[in-house]
Amino acid sequence: MNWWLWTLAAIGALLIVTTVYDLVQKRHAILRNFPIIGHLRYLLESFGPELRQYIVSDNDEERPFNRNQRRWVYATSKRENPYFGFGSDNRLDADGHVFFRHSAFPFDSDAPHGELRAAKVLGAWRGRPGAFRPESVVNISGMSYGSLSGPAVAALNGGSAIAGCLHNTGEGGVSVHHRLGGDLVFQLGTGYFGARGADGRFCMDAFLASFGSAPVKAVELKLSQGAKPGLGGVLPAAKVTEEIAEARGVPAGVTVRSPNRHPEFDDVAGLVRFTERIADACGVPVGIKSAVGDRRFWTELASEMSRAGRGPDFITVDGGEGGTGAGPLTFTDHVSLPFRVGFAEVYQAFAEADLHEAVVFVGSGKLGFAPDAMVAMAMGVDLINVGREAMMSVGCIQAQRCHSGRCPTGVATQSKWLTRGLDPTSKAVRVANYVAGLRQELRMLAEAMGEEHPSLVDPAAVEMRIRRGELLPILDAIGYSEAAKEARIALGEVSREARLFADSTAASPAQAPRFLG
Predict the structure, then answer these.
(1) Is residue 173 a contact partner of residue 248, using CB atoms and an 8 Å limit?
(2) Judging by beta carbons within 10 Å of its beta carbon (0-12, 13-18, 19+), is residue 295 exposed, middle or buried?
(3) Which helix (H) or strand (E) holds 432?
(4) Are 295 and 317 within 8 A, CB to CB?
(5) What DSSP line would sit under 34-79, residue for residue?
(6) For residue range 55-94, what is the model confidence (pLDDT) as tens digits?
(7) Can you tell me the distance from the alpha carbon of 517 to that of 515, in angstroms, rounded to the nearest whole number?
(8) Rounded CA gap, 72 and 82, in Å?
(9) Which of 21, 144, 179, 285 could covalently link to 123 via disulfide, CB atoms 3.0 to 4.6 Å apart?
(10) Domain 138-501 is in which class?
């Protein structure tokens, strides 16, 4: 046989072996879904920095997440070295850049790697029987089964169980993929999926059946989300499989629509009553999630809660940067305020009503990195929700095809071929690694500033560069009122004193100290 035939045979054998290996390995979804050619992605990625340095873009230009951010998530989730060498490639003198004033005497901690509990007790204000202190300040944001694939949801839930964080179900109900050990926040959207009757309206019996079937620690009423505030949602018939239909309580193979508002209430007082109705029935903390638009809604809600002495236990503020739901470009770009501006309005409304201590504030919208999370916590956020960052830890490569049903990594699609490449068991470990890694960096940042917990950091030690090179404390730079600034600083002092009760016990979770313990 001629030498070239032997060469062709060797190449063919190598391709066959590589194809078989790619199809059976579980480490890379891209290679399982696209054997052989998937290696081109990693080849291009390997010499991408050299090309981009001279031809294309730098490490901070891409959106919604730049290359440095994605690299940090990937490295952290794989327990690889997330450090960057040769100094920063950012403009440290750019407007909007944030600085953290480190202490000459950092806090010396012996806390276990990656552990960081919440500072507040969820549900303590209203004395809910199921009140609890979240074990993690970082939790998984609401992303429903249907928007994400079953294996992706399973990976998120399995990772939540390993990391000890909460997993928000999204508005698609509680599915079999949510029952892998992770504690849940059951999200009720405007379609009441998993809690609806035959007429599509809210049904308490259906809600309690779903609630009792899984480890639900809290309930969240979704009013709107940052990606498409003021809009409803549509799940095409092709995506409504038998499994998805069962979780949502709808017929299989039929297009499902969510209205743009809750049919069960039409004003602030009605929202408060509905919140209490849910809480009375299930006994766990109940909160709301919303993007920030009409400022009057928040002042009216804070006023009504102060007057009635009841209402949501927690408030999730979703910034306009949020993007786990696909939406029209007009809405994603121009409707709802970005997180820092929006949260400032919400926090000030509740500070003026003297409810900032009672309510647990949750922030979401590109907060899955320690600097952004620390800024949010300096502003008054108690818990951080991560969505797309968690998706990247599962394998998302920011292809931005979530709306097409052709996600190449199997994360945001119902294609059986594409989802087969995603192994939920190995990806669950990566989710847990990412959550623990973010908690660890948050703790390290707080300790560098002389505190043992991010909630104890003095907001004045977080500064932003504004025009003319001036540095302002973050609350001044964002525009907090004097009353809101005083309330935020005073709350930090209350939290600091509460550390004295670290070893105290209580007869029930609802009687536990509201702050660090």
Answers:
(1) yes
(2) middle
(3) helix 424-448
(4) no
(5) STTTHHHHHHHHHTHHHHHHHTS--TT-SSSS-HHHHHHHHHHHTT
(6) 566 666 677 888 889 999 999 999 998 888 877 877 888 8
(7) 6
(8) 5
(9) 285
(10) alpha beta
What is the dihedral sign for C-alpha 319, 322, 325, 326? positive
Q: How far is CA 504 from the centre of its chain?
A: 31
pTM across the whole model: 0.87
Q: For position 174, what pLDDT does the model report?
A: 96
The total number of residues shown for the chain amounts to 517
Structure-token pair, residue 399: 């292809």
- Residue 233 has a pLDDT of 77
Write out residues in the chain with pLDDT < 70, as ranges: 1, 45-61, 226-227, 322-327, 493-517
Tell me which amino acid residue 25 is: Q
The full set of domain ranges for the chain reads 1-56, 138-501
Q: How far apart are CA 275 and CA 279, in angstroms?
A: 6
Closest to 434 in 3D by CA, of 30, 75, 64, 28:
75
Residues whose CB is less than 8 angstroms from the CB of residue 163 and which lie 6 or more positions away in sequence, other chains included: 114, 136, 431, 432, 435, 436
As a dihedral over the C-alpha atoms of residue 117, residue 120, residue 121, residue 126, rounded to 10 degrees, the angle is -160
Query: Mind spelling out the 3-state secondary structure of 347-388?
Result: HHHHHHCCCCCCCEEEEECCCCCHHHHHHHHHHCCCEEEECH
Structure tokens, 447: 């300790």
Residue 365 in tokens: 């919208």
Residue 168's beta-bridge partner residues? 185
Looking at residue 10, what is its pLDDT?
76
Other CB atoms within 10 A of residue 440 CB? 18
The reported pLDDT for the residue numbered 428 is: 98
Question: What is the amino acid identity at position 413?
Answer: T
